[in-house]
Amino acid sequence: MKFLFSDKVLLRKLLPVISVVAILTACNKSETLNSMSLEALSPLQAGKYITYRVDSMVFVNSGKTTETHRYQVKHVIDHAATDNLNRPAWVVYTYLNDSLASGPWVSNGTYVITIAGKQMEVYENNMRVLKLMLPTAEGFSWKGNTYLSDHPYNPDFPLYIDYNMRLWDFTYSSINQTEKIGTTTLDSVTTLTHIDKSENVPMVTDTAFASRELSLEKYAKNIGLVYREFQLWENQPRKTSTGNVVSFNPVRIGFGIKMWMIDKN
Asked: Which pTM value belongs to this model?
């Protein structure tokens, strides 16, 4: 099984950030929001795993061609530890396989989950994200990317639009809904929307700037993350002028990913 460099970078840098083992349980309307704790919402336990089917969109041929690559990724909670601030944390290992899991599972790195007060943090490759916060109430939001740098995916993906990721609002957009994820119908699904923004999409011409920013997650009670969709890409027209002659060398930069749970223990 062969993985392209762009896929390894994407799955190593993006998937841990999306915190596939975090559990979000929506509160009953009769509950007092202050009574909830992230420890109760997040069954972090050594040996627990979730496996996902992944469709990743990449731009190849110097940004001229779009391809979709299909995989499985497994996230396994390995052991308890402390983070770099000496707080209790969990270390999670990730593994890749082909879309049918017909080959060996290939190690793809680790990341750390920390529960601190009313927030859950995920730290990987110097990217720290506030994945979950209390209260789990519809409409509640926070700046989940507040610790990210101005261009967190550079230099692997030299984007312009990722400079404002610290401004994204992580928002509980629905609570305790019944949804079909893949082939499985799940109850108590809670959706978080981080951003849904586009410019000149769908594209009419590649000689104009275009961009797409989409990030959302769906968590199921007592299971964890069951669906994730993320798009962060732009079309750069790269206009040049020589005398009276104007020319373009458009390229698309970035990535997209869609993943859904197919197995767990």
From this structure: 0.83
